[in-house]
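The authors assume throughout that readers already know how a fold can be written as discrete tokens. In essence, backbone conformation is discretised, so a fold becomes a row of integers matching the chain in length. A single example would do more here than another paragraph of explanation. For illustration, here is how one protein appears when written out as sequence plus structure tokens:

…
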Amino acid sequence: MDTKINLLDLSLDELRGFIAELREPRFRAEQVWQWMWQKGVSDFEEMSNVSKALRTKLAEHAVILPPTIDTVRESDDGTVKFLLRLADGALIETVLLPSRTHYTQCLSTQVGCAMGCAFCSTGTMGLARNLAHSEICGQVLLGREWLEQKNSQDKGERSLRNLVFMGMGEPLMNYDTLVKSLHTLRDDKAFGFSSRRMTVSTAGVPGRMTELVTSGLARLAVSLHAPTQELRERIMPRAARMHPLPALMEELKKLPLRPQERTTFEYILIGGLNDTPQHARELVRLLSHVRAKINLIACNPAKDSPFAAPTMEAIEAFQQVLRDKGLVAMLRKSKGQDIEAACGQLVTQKQEEQARAESPSA
């Protein structure tokens, strides 16, 4: 134990093993676990029901190190975007999305992303690495703490109710750590989120979608964005090649869904590219053999993006074609446009600022 271990990287079973190595009784692990995740404590001395001897051992051999907040931006519509700095200096994003009664937090699972989706700022970065358990669940720690402080100041009562893995990265490409994190987020002695209130969004990783649905740990959402393989290859080339549309749909047809459960499909409408009534009719044909629910999202293009937001007329016409064919199609309102809330926008902006500052000509 020469190198201090970050306890936030451990599952509960792993923490029990670590506590056993310190020659302490098993129940101490549950105490430390609750202090870290339920109460958000990172100072061992604040763990008042933990023995002095164990607190000393923990300080000698371990740390509690969540990500740190680099930048916070608040939108006029109540959206809050956090730029987080990790221990190695890498930057990631997480976003709090408000509704009338609660907040939903959008979580990242990787530094960058290998999928290369053309409309996404994160896709331009490439993949640096996967996030660790401490870095995924640590986003929720920080989001919850920020909301608790806000509610205290504003005398509000809107809590963090839902989690969506729709931030930076492809969650199913970091599958083992994702599953480990979902177990922690569900644990009643940690965060206590219901599996029905956690959604994992994927561009489609062969086999992993079925594993996730079978596990029952979270709901699945599929980033589709095109009704044909050809168009999907233009919009999200690596994902389309990794799991071609016919094979993707075949796997989705066989998902072990519960009665009345539908697969959620996300479809970003990009002006002039995939937002015509003809695209909508092709989408109806594609989804004819699955129980589908479609979330339509208007493109929120980054600065200098070659893509455009769709017109409201195009959105309404597209949605009407789907509804006329009996599909459930909801328009998800884009939030935080004034604070670069779309995935990866704030990280790329920060990186550009740092590059300019470090340039000899700056």
About this structure: The chain has a mean pLDDT of 92. The chain is about 35% helix and 20% strand.
